[in-house]
Write a structure and sequence with these properties.
Blueprint: H1 2-33, H2 35-53, H3 55-75, E1 81-82, H4 83-101, E2 105-111, E3 119-120, H5 125-137, E4 144-153, E5 156-163, H6 180-193, E6 198-204, E7 207-215
Parallel strand pairs: 2-4
Antiparallel strand pairs: 1-3, 4-5, 5-7, 6-7
Helix pairs in contact: 1-6, 2-3, 3-4, 4-5
Length: 221
C-alpha cells in the first residue's frame, strides 16, 4: 500500500512538472510571436519617411522586410537556433535599417566563429540591435556606430550590443519605458534559464552597452 501511494505521488509530480514545462513553453512562444507584428509596425513607420525621400529605397525596404518576417515566422517554430542563424537574421534587419539611415548607421561585428554553432533561444540579439538603433543612433543627426559581439567569459556565454549616439540615461542597469522587444526578451530569459541568465544595460566611455549572460553549461554545443 505504501509503495502504491509513493508511486502515485511520483506520477502526479511528473505530470505537474510536464504541465508546468508546457505552460512555460507556451508562454515563451507567445512572447516570441509578438515580435513579428512589433518589427513590422516599427519598420512601416520607417517606410513612411522613405516613400517621399527615396521611393527606390522604400521598394527595397519592402522586399527586405518580407524576407525578415519570413525568418521571424520560421524561428517561431523552434525553441532554439544557432547563433549563426541569429546573425543572419540580424544582418537582414541591419540591411533594412541601412536603407533608411544610410551612412548614419555603421556596424562592427566582433564574432568568434567557433561559437556560431552554439544553440540559444531565438531573437536574443535582434531586440538589442533594434533598441540600440531606435533609441541611440536614429535620434542623432550624425548617427552612430553599432557593435555586436559574442564571447565566452568565466563559463558564461556573453552576447553584447553596444552603440554610440544618444544616451539612454541608464541608472542602476535599467531604463524605464523601454519597448516590447526588451520586455519580452527579459521574460523569455527568465522562462528559459531562471536566475542563471541575466540582462543588463550600462553606459561606459560614450557607449551604451546591453549585455545578455547565459549559463554556458545549459546551452547545447
Amino acid at each position: 500500500l505504501t509503495g502504491y501511494f509513493l508511486d502515485r505521488h511520483e506520477r502526479v509530480e511528473q505530470s505537474e512538472k510536464a504541465a508546468m514545462e508546457k505552460a512555460r513553453e507556451a508562454q515563451s512562444r507567445l512572447l516570441q510571436s509578438q515580435m513579428s507584428p512589433h518589427v513590422l509596425f516599427n519598420a512601416l513607420n520607417g517606410f513612411a519617411e522613405l516613400i517621399h525621400k527615396d521611393p527606390a529605397a522604400a521598394e527595397g525596404s519592402v522586399r527586405s522586410l518580407a524576407h525578415l518576417l519570413r525568418q521571424l515566422l520560421t524561428f517561431a517554430e523552434f525553441k532554439v537556433i544557432t547563433l549563426q542563424e541569429e546573425r543572419a537574421l540580424v544582418e537582414d534587419y541591419l540591411h533594412l535599417e541601412g536603407l533608411r539611415l544610410g551612412s548614419r548607421l555603421s556596424s562592427i561585428w566582433q564574432w568568434e566563429e567557433r561559437l556560431q554553432s552554439r544553440l540559444v533561444p531565438p531573437l536574443l540579439i535582434q531586440p538589442l540591435v533594434e533598441n540600440a538603433i531606435k533609441h541611440g543612433i536614429a535620434p542623432v543627426k550624425q548617427g552612430g556606430i553599432l557593435r555586436i559581439s559574442i564571447r565566452e567569459e568565466a563559463g558564461s556565454l556573453l552576447l553584447e550590443v553596444a552603440n554610440t549616439g544618444s544616451s539612454l540615461g541608464v541608472k542602476d542597469g535599467t531604463r524605464p519605458g523601454l519597448g516590447l522587444g526588451l520586455r519580452n526578451l527579459k521574460d523569455r530569459l527568465a522562462l528559459a534559464f531562471g536566475p542563471d541568465a541575466s540582462f543588463g544595460l550600462a553606459e561606459r566611455e560614450g557607449w551604451t552597452i546591453a549585455t545578455i549572460s547565459l549559463p554556458g553549461d545549459k546551452i547545447a554545443p
